[in-house]
Write a structure and sequence with these properties.
By secondary structure, this protein is mainly alpha-helical. Helices cover 71% and strands 3% of the residues. The chain contains eleven helices and two strands; from the N terminus they run H-H-H-E-E-H-H-H-H-H-H-H-H. A hairpin with a 3-residue loop joins strand 1 and strand 2.
Length: 240
C-alpha cells in the first residue's frame, strides 16, 4: 500500500516532517500526550501519519531541539515539557507551529537587524527606538496597544539597520509576526510581575547595546530575547 510520502515530490517530502512535527506538538498541547509520557515508537508513528521512519525521525529531532521531547537510548522519546493550556486558546486562528516558525524567522532577521542598527543608526533613529520601547512599557497591560507597540519597536530597529530589504521583509510579514507577538505578550501579561519585568529588561538590553553602538551585544541581546520568548511559549512552567 503506497504511503502519502510515495505520491509527492521531493519538495513536498520536506514538508511531511513539518506536518508530523506540528501534529505531535498539537497532541502535546491538547494534553493527549502529557509530560512524562512516552511517544509511540517510530514504526507506529510512521503508520499513523503514512510516512517513512526517516520523516518521523526528523520530526522527533525537531521536537528534541525545541526541548519538548527527550530521547532516552533504548527507551524511546518522552515529553519533558509542554506549552501552557492558554496557548491553545490564543492560537485558534493559526497554530502553535505557525508561531514557532515566525520566531525562527525573527531569530535570523532581527539578530541581523540589531547588529546593523548598532553600527548604522543615526540619532533620530535611536530616539525612535527608545520612544517605541517606552511606549511598549506604558502599553504592556493592554492587548492591541501592546502588540502594535512591540511591532513598532522591532520595526524601528529594522529601519535603523540601513538595510531596506530587512525592513521590507518585516513589513510584508507584519500580520503573521503580530499574531505571534500577541500570543507571547498575552502569556506574559497574565504571568508574574517578575516575568513581565524580565521581558521588559530584555528590550532594555537591546536598546542599550544599540545606543552604545555595540553590534555584537545588540545581536546577542536580540537573539536571547526571541529565544526566551520561544522558551516561554513552549514551557508552561515558565508561564508564571
Amino acid at each position: 500500500m503506497p504511503t502519502l510520502e510515495s505520491t509527492v515530490t521531493s519538495v513536498d517530502k520536506l514538508r511531511l516532517s513539518d506536518t508530523v512535527y506540528s501534529q505531535l506538538l498539537d497532541d502535546i498541547l491538547a494534553g493527549t500526550i502529557a509530560v512524562g509520557d512516552r511517544l509511540a515508537p517510530e514504526t507506529q508513528l510512521a503508520e499513523r501519519f503514512a510516512v517513512s521512519r526517516p520523516v518521523v525521525r526528523e520530526a522527533l529531532q525537531r521536537l528534541q531541539s525545541d526541548g519538548v521531547v527527550i530521547s532516552r537510548q533504548g527507551s524511546g522519546s518522552f515529553v519533558q515539557r509542554s506549552p501552557s493550556p492558554r496557548v491553545g486558546e490564543l492560537t485558534r486562528s493559526f497554530t502553535l507551529h505557525d508561531v514557532l516558525q515566525s520566531l525562527e524567522l525573527r531569530m535570523a532577521l532581527e539578530e541581523l537587524s540589531a547588529r546593523l542598527a548598532a553600527r548604522n543608526r543615526n540619532e533620530e533613529q535611536m530616539q525612535l527606538i527608545e520612544k517605541t520601547a517606552a511606549k511598549l512599557k506604558s502599553a504592556f497591560g493592554q492587548s492591541k496597544a501592546a502588540q502594535d507597540a512591540d511591532f513598532a519597536f522591532h520595526r524601528a530597529i529594522a529601519a535603523a539597520s540601513g538595510n531596506l530589504l530587512l525592513l521590507e521583509t518585516l513589513e510584508q510579514l507584519a500580520d503573521k509576526l503580530k499574531g505571534g507577538m500577541n500570543v507571547t505578550l498575552t502569556l506574559t501579561r497574565s504571568a508574574s510581575l517578575q516575568r513581565r519585568e524580565r521581558v521588559l529588561d530584555e528590550h532594555d538590553r537591546i536598546v542599550n547595546a544599540i545606543r552604545v553602538s555595540d553590534a555584537e551585544s545588540a545581536g546577542i541581546a536580540m537573539r536571547y530575547h526571541i529565544d526566551q520568548a520561544r522558551n516561554r511559549l513552549l514551557d508552561r512552567q515558565l508561564d508564571r
